[in-house]
Design goal:
5 helices; two-stranded antiparallel sheet; ten-stranded antiparallel beta sheet; alpha+beta; rod-shaped
Amino acid sequence: MAKKEKKKKQLKKKLLHKYRLVVLNEDTFEERYAIKLNRLNVFVLVALSGILLVSFTTILIAYTPLREYIPGYSSTSLKKKATELTYKADSLQQQLLFNDRYYASIKKVLTGDVSSAEFNRDSIIEAAKAEDIEDIFPNKEDSLLRAKADKEDKYNLFDSETNSSNFVLFPPVNGTISEGYNLEEKHFAVDVVIPETTPVKAAADGIVIFAEWTVSTGYVIILEHSNELISVYKHNGSVTKEQGDLVKAGEVIALSGNTGELSTGPHLHFELWSKGYPIDPTNFIDFQ
């Protein structure tokens, strides 16, 4: 025990033993600066200086652009660009998925590889009327909003949405039906016999979503209308519209012909699709 106490005293004496640090003029040996120190003070001073230096360096690297010059750290602009590219890639992936689904549905329309459903014109009209006569009791705020919207619609430059019960289809051509709509044979169309170069007209207002040549059906043009309706015109001799064109009901969109491997003579192969299901065009259009 005595030896341990003796060692402690010696250590304490060494740590607290005072020294004098003197700065002299080299030529005149004049004392310019002097400070009293001991080993403990020097150790504490060095430790504090090291901690401050590490802290300052850490802050400098973390919160200033200088960290970009240190190997292993990526630049802020590079991270920003990488984030933007990630969002763009995700958006493109979603758009590609949407386009794939859209083109798949168009392919089904062209090939007829879909399930069918029966639609009746009278039932559609009755359902639309039933929706229109539902009892609705709007509150005061809703009534004011409706009145404001009605007032704005008076000066609307665009056509307002028409009721599905008032939706009328225009006959694309007039002629004799050589083959009618047949679900069992998967003939989801009517074939109307007409001379070549007869004008083929749009069945309703819409937009051209497909206007190309196909090996089996020749020149094909497809229109998308309101109320989720699609009309298809096949075996044309030529088309007068391009994809993306807006057309009006009765406007000429093609000239009839006898094109495609499946054609057996000059005629128009006309299809109607409602919400992805084929329907009998003769229920809505008189071709005579």
